[in-house]
Amino acid sequence: MVALVLGAVVAYGVAGFAVASTRINSANKALNSVIDHENAITKSFNDLAAQLAKINLTSSTTTADLKTYRGLSDQLVSTSQGALPTVASDDASLASADATLKEQQWLTALSKSRIDSASGRLGHARKALSDAKTIASDYVQLGGYYQAYFDGNIDLSMIGDALSANDLPAATTATNTLKTDAAKGLALASAPGLPAEVKAYQTDLATLADDFAKLLVAVAKGDSTNGSKLLKTVEAEATKIDSYDWNAISDKIDAFYKPLIDDYNSEGHKATA
Fold it and tell me: Once rounded to an integer, what is the mean pLDDT over residues 59-63?
């Protein structure tokens, strides 16, 4: 009888260890797959963020340059949107793996510490995924603002090109487009991470666009009195637009996202420890 009981105990231990090992291996496989996905997403984000951070608009920036920068903001939006389904799928995969780890705990009781350790790694990975979801969702909005920002600067560049060519109709068309794009930018100026200066900039840009449109109308009518007044107003508004420190604004955006990115990295490291 003792031998029979002992045999049953041994069989229980062996079976429980084998089941626990299989589940832990499956959990590690799911975790490794998620890590591969997240590494690819993180690299894309880091590459785009680095390129956008290097942008410094100057008087020598061309319309072609601005369109290239606009393309980077397009990529930020599309990459962020594309990351969200992957993050959701990966989180579901980890949740399923964790639930499987905890099934029939009476059978795997002797491997509890191993299972708890594996479950803890999955938990840290899921916290990282939660951060990734927030970052990606925020970047969709941030990238949307950058699209409007570069569109506005493209409009300004095209206005300058048109005026240099004495092409009043082209300047008028570009100015009307600027009015639309400035309004879009103002609507997007509350995207996560954007400081108050961005909304102020967009408000000033919208005012400049309106007044410049009035100036072109005055010029077309040959109204020199109103034209002279509007010219002074527009010059002052343009000077104000140029006074915004976009390097400082970028620093504030970075400061907003740093704690979230740091937490993402920290949880990722814990998941692979």
Answer: 87
